[in-house]
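Quick one, tokens below. Sequence please?
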């Protein structure tokens, strides 16, 4: 899987999400980093579709976390934007579900990395021409090996 991606359309962002879902395993943690409008929720929608989630995947901004079951692997979708620190993350008790799920955290950089031994950081951005970009940064040998295949 390539580490750098141009995402000119929403469909491209969804396709990258489906590609990440195909490589996903129970216990995976994906930390999505980027400004507002960079495509974090759209990428998570693609991941959900790739995992076979049937219900709509929407931003969990006001509920903080949503669990989507019914797919190949449960999807835990977290928006850490309003969390004040690691103690707030602990209060969510996410570690109870991370072993059997794919956990995707928007705005989680510096807050959630301790939830798994390794994780994939997805750095999303929106250029001036409105094209989104994604850089996949593996943290740990498992993600490094998966990204280096193909």
């Amino acid at each position: 899987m390539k580490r750098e991606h141009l995402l000119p359309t929403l469909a491209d962002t969804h396709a990258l999400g489906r590609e990440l879902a195909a490589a996903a395993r129970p216990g995976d943690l994906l930390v999505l980093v980027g400004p507002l409008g960079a495509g974090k929720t759209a990428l998570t929608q693609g991941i959900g579709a790739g995992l076979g989630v049937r219900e709509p995947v929407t931003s969990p901004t006001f509920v903080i976390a949503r669990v989507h079951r019914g797919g190949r692997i449960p999807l835990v979708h977290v928006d850490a934007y309003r969390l004040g620190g690691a103690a707030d993350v602990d209060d969510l008790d996410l570690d109870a579900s991370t072993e059997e799920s794919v956990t995707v955290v928007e705005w989680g950089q510096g807050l959630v990395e301790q939830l798994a031994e390794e994780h994939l950081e997805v750095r999303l951005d929106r250029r001036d021409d409105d094209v989104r970009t994604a850089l996949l940064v593996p943290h740990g040998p498992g993600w490094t090996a998966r990204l280096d295949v193909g």
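The mean pLDDT is 85. The helical segments are 10-23, 40-51, 86-92, 95-98, 141-148.
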